[in-house]
Amino acid sequence: MREDLIYNWMHDNAAKCGYVSDPFGFVARLTENAKCYVNFAKGKDAIGNDNAHLKNIIYLGGSAFRQHLILLLTARNLQADMFNFLAKNLETYLFYYFVHARAGKNIREAIWQMESFSTESAINDRSCQLCSNRDET
Questions:
Q1: pTM beyond 0.70, yes or no
Q2: pLDDT tens digits, residue range 86-99?
Q3: Which of 37, 58, 92, 130 gives 20 to 30 Å between its CA and that of 21?
Q4: Inter-residue contact 67 to 111 (CB < 8 Å)
Q5: SS (H, E, C) the chain
Q6: How far apart are CA 113 and CA 105, in angstroms?
Q7: What is the spatial distance between Cα 87 and Cα 136, in angstroms, rounded to a whole number?
Q8: Cβ–Cβ under 8 Å, residues 43 and 55
Q9: CB distance 127 to 136 below 8 Å
């Protein structure tokens, strides 16, 4: 997703993001998401525990492969078994693409479609993890 689209969305949805009404809370959510992103990039779950499926994705695609991390951010508050189910299926999906020598562009497009669906659903369900409180459902 292009950076300008993110900023436009945030500007148009200031009330959902809360950066005007609760700037410190917004920064806290950004910080929490950044920590989760770093954990995911290291093959760990949101709280920092090793996750074999995420480690295997690193082994498959290398440490530079990060298209799946935004998708994982939308799922960071799932229960452990549900998060593992997603990670396992993501690993399987990526394994299929890497083993069958799909072009990187095709993988990026497929991940983007998964992210778009997930993000759109999260926003429509009022459960956008980046712009809502952690305790909200």
A1: no
A2: 999 999 988 887 77
A3: 37
A4: yes
A5: CCHHHHHHHHHHCHHHHCCCCCHHHHHHHHHHHHHHHHHHHCCECCCCCECHHHHHHHHHHCCCCCCCHHHHHHCCCCCHHHHHHHHHHHHHHHHHHHHCCCCHHHHHHHHHHHHHHHHHHHHHCCCCCCCCCCCCC
A6: 12
A7: 23
A8: yes
A9: yes
